Amino acid sequence: MTETASAGSATLRRDDPDDVVARLEEDIIFGGFAPGARLTEDALMSRYGTSRHFARQALVEMERRGIVRREKNVGATVRFFSAEEIRQIYEVREMLTRQAALMIPLPAPQGLIDELSALQRDYCAKADICDLRGIHEANDAFHVALFSACGNPYLVRALQDYMNLTLPMRAKNLADREGLAQSRRQHELMIELLKGRDSWALAQLCVDHMQFSKADYLARIAGGES
Predict the structure, then answer these.
(1) Would you say 36 and 71 are in contact if contact means Cβ atoms under 8 Å apart?
(2) pLDDT in tens, 74-89
(3) Are 123 and 139 within 8 A, CB to CB?
């Protein structure tokens, strides 16, 4: 993890359950805990300087998001996805993404263009200083704002659930120069397509946008990398 990202983490308040959740999420998605790693309340209490109650709450929240698994006689572990599970998860995420993009009225209102342009500037600023958590948060904010324009909050919520589920698969690419550069270019193109009338081109780009991280994670699984 970069010094910038670590410094940002150090400002979190350990007496706030949301901050403990953020620390645990960061450790999972940026490699502090590998897939399959066991997570005990005692270890989290020591690592984050928090109470058992907040450590337990953090595990419950990560389980709700689908990136921590609890099993009888094993306890909580960072969820490991097989190649087949990854393909199935992305199949659903791609279907939801395509449908949401197709439902966005085009040309999009100027307010949406301005909002996404501002979020893209923030995303690029975080990328320029290698703030991994900032990149992750700005990226998700961009996509939530984009898909919220579909007008169906239930579809957006389902998409957010799958964005959370695939976070450990895609977050590693936030530190990948090629993947990050491609992501920035595709965001800019999405904004341009919103100004036109080609909904199918926008939908296809949104689906293509997630392929780099999917392919990279599958390659790492095949190569035995955690």
Answers:
(1) no
(2) 889 888 888 999 999 9
(3) yes
Q: What is the DSSP letter of 162?
A: H
- Angle formed at CA 165 by CA 161 and CA 167, multiple of 5 degrees: 115
Q: What would the pLDDT profile of 117-140 be if each residue is shown by its tens digit? A: 999 999 999 999 988 888 888 999
Q: Give the Cα separation of 129 and 132 in Å (integer).
A: 9
Domains of the chain: 3-78 (1.10.10.10), 84-222 (1.20.120.530)
CB 106 within 8 A of CB 149: no
Partners of 110 in beta bridges: none
Q: Cα separation of 191 and 158, whole Å?
A: 23
pTM: 0.78
Two tokens at 131?
């703030």
Q: Crossing angle, helix 132-148 and helix 177-194, to 10 degrees?
A: 20
